[in-house]
Design goal:
By secondary structure, the protein is of the alpha/beta class. About 40% of the residues lie in helices and about 15% in strands. Helix 1 (about 10-15) packs across helix 3 and helix 11 (about 240-265) runs parallel beside helix 17 (about 385-405). It is elongated, with a radius of gyration of 28 Å.
Length: about 400
C-alpha cells in the first residue's frame, strides 16, 4: 500500500508525515528543516519534480519516506501495544515447515497482535533457554509463551517450576479434549490441573539390526530389552537429553532402579539418531538394538537389515510442552489458537511423525501401538531433578562396571 503520492507537494507530505522531514534534510532539501520555508518553498514544489531537479530516483526516495513513516508508526505501536514474545525449540525434522507456517500466520492481515518469535532447532540444546529462565527474578522477566521438550526445564523450581507453582504460568492451549490416542483408560496425557500444555510427543522405539541378533529373538518390549542377554548390545541417544531423561525416568518408574542399571549394563555406546540408522554399516561396535525417535526409523535403508519395532508395552514418550503467562491469556489467545491448531498439529504428526494431541488429527498410529508415559502422579510426587541425578548415577555406574568386565 502506497503512502506517498509523487504528485503531492513537499509541504503536504511533511505535514501529514512529520517523520519524513529528516529524510528530506538528509538528502539535499535542507530548507525543509525550517517551518517557514516548508510552507513557502514546500508548497511550490511537487515531489516528482523536486526529485527530478536533483537527479534523485523517485521510487528509491519514496521508499525512504515510507520506511520512515512505517518505522515511526511501529515505534508508537510498540509503546501502546507491546508485542507478544514467543520462545522455544522446534523439533529438527520439522523446524522449517513449522517456521514457515508461523511466518505465514504472523503476516496475516487479521493477525491483531504483533509477535516476536525466537524459535531454534532442538539440536541447539536448552542451555540458552535455561540461562534466561534461571535468571528471571519474576514472571515479568519471562517471555509470554514457551514451547519445548525438557522435563527438567518445565518442572524444576530453578526454571519454570516456581512460576507454575505460583500460578503465573499455565497451559495456554485451547483444547478442552485431546486426541483419543492420549486420552483413554490406559493413558491420560492431558494435565488434569491445566498447568502444562502438551502439543505433541516424541516416541522412542527400537531399531533392530537383524544381522547382529546372534541367535537372540527380536526384542518386543522394554522388559525384553532389560534382560541380561542384551548386555553390551544397545545404543542409546544419551546426548538427546530430553528423550534420554524421559527414557530413564519412565524405566525407573516402571522397572525400578534395577531397570535403570540393566539399561546401563546393556548399553554398548551412545549415538545420535542420525548415526544410529547407519550403525549397520560401521566396521566395529555394531549395536543389535538402537533406541531412537520414531521419525528416524523411517530413514533406515529399505531392504537392509534394520527393522523398526514398536515395543508392545509402549513407546516411551517425551512431550513437547507449552506454557504461557496467565495474566496475558486474552492477548495470547490468537497465538495460542495457532500453536494448538490443526495446521501445526498436521505438520508435527504427518511430516515429523511426532503424534499430536490435537483432537481432530489422525496420527496414523495403529491402535495396537501403545505409549508409555511417566504419568502425572509420578511427576507430582517426585523431585524430578533428584530423580535425574539418581538415575544417571545408577546408569553410569552400571555402564562403567560392565566396561571393566567386557
Amino acid at each position: 500500500m502506497k503512502l506517498i503520492n509523487p504528485t503531492e507537494n513537499l509541504y503536504q507530505i511533511t505535514e501529514r508525515y512529520p517523520q519524513t522531514i529528516e529524510v528530506f534534510v538528509k538528502n539535499g532539501f535542507q530548507q525543509m528543516a525550517d517551518k517557514q520555508k516548508r510552507e513557502t518553498l514546500g508548497k511550490s514544489l511537487r515531489l516528482d519534480i523536486a526529485l527530478t531537479m536533483k537527479g534523485i530516483d523517485l521510487q528509491v526516495f519514496i521508499s525512504l519516506l515510507e520506511e520512515a513513516v512505517l518505522k515511526a508508526n511501529s515505534q508508537v505501536h510498540h509503546l501502546v501495544n507491546k508485542p507478544i514474545s514467543l520462545k522455544g525449540l522446534l523439533p529438527c525434522p520439522v523446524r522449517l515447515p513449522l517456521q514457515e507456517a508461523l511466518n505465514t500466520f504472523l503476516e496475516k492481515e487479521d493477525q491483531k497482535q504483533e509477535v516476536n518469535a525466537e524459535l531454534k532447532a532442538a539440536s541447539m540444546g536448552l542451555d540458552w533457554l535455561k540461562d534466561d529462565i534461571g535468571n528471571a527474578a519474576s514472571v515479568q522477566d519471562l517471555d509470554d509463551i514457551y514451547i519445548s521438550a525438557g522435563f527438567d526445564l518445565f518442572f524444576e523450581d530453578d526454571y519454570f517450576g516456581r512460576f507454575i507453582k505460583t500460578g503465573d504460568l499455565a497451559d495456554p492451549l485451547p483444547w478442552k479434549e485431546v486426541n483419543t490416542d492420549f486420552n483413554n483408560e490406559l493413558l491420560q496425557l492431558k494435565d488434569p490441573d491445566s498447568r502444562y500444555g502438551i502439543i505433541a510427543v516424541v516416541p522412542a522405539i527400537f531399531l533392530v539390526n537383524q544381522h547382529e541378533l546372534n541367535g537372540r529373538n527380536v526384542p518386543q518390549s522394554w522388559s525384553d530389552l532389560l534382560s541380561d542377554e542384551w548386555m553390551n548390545s544397545i545404543s542409546l541417544p544419551v546426548s538427546d537429553f530430553d528423550l534420554f531423561n524421559a527414557i530413564l525416568l519412565t524405566v525407573r518408574n516402571i522397572y525400578g532402579m534395577e531397570g535403570v542399571a540393566a539399561l546401563g549394563r546393556n548399553m554398548q555406546q551412545s549415538l545420535h539418531p542420525a548415526q544410529m540408522i547407519k550403525s549397520d554399516r560401521t566396521k566395529t561396535q555394531k549395536p543389535a538394538v538402537t533406541i531412537m525417535p520414531y521419525f528416524f526409523t523411517k530413514m533406515a535403508k529399505a531392504g537392509g537389515p534394520m527393522m523398526a519395532v514398536w515395543p508392545n508395552d509402549g513407546a516411551i514418550i517425551s512431550p513437547i510442552f507449552a506454557v504461557g503467562k496467565v495474566s496475558k491469556k486474552a492477548e495470547l489467545a490468537q497465538l495460542a489458537d495457532f500453536l494448538g491448531g490443526e495446521q501445526l498439529a498436521s505438520i508435527l504428526s504427518h511430516q515429523g511423525l511426532f503424534p499430536s494431541l490435537h483432537p481432530k488429527i489422525d496420527n496414523a498410529i495403529p491402535r495396537e501401538n501403545k505409549f508409555m508415559w511417566l504419568g502425572w502422579d509420578y511427576i507430582n510426587s517426585h523431585n524430578l531433578n533428584q530423580e535425574f541425578e539418581a538415575c544417571t548415577q545408577v546408569f553410569e555406574d552400571a555402564f562403567q562396571l560392565k566396561k571393566s568386565l567386557v
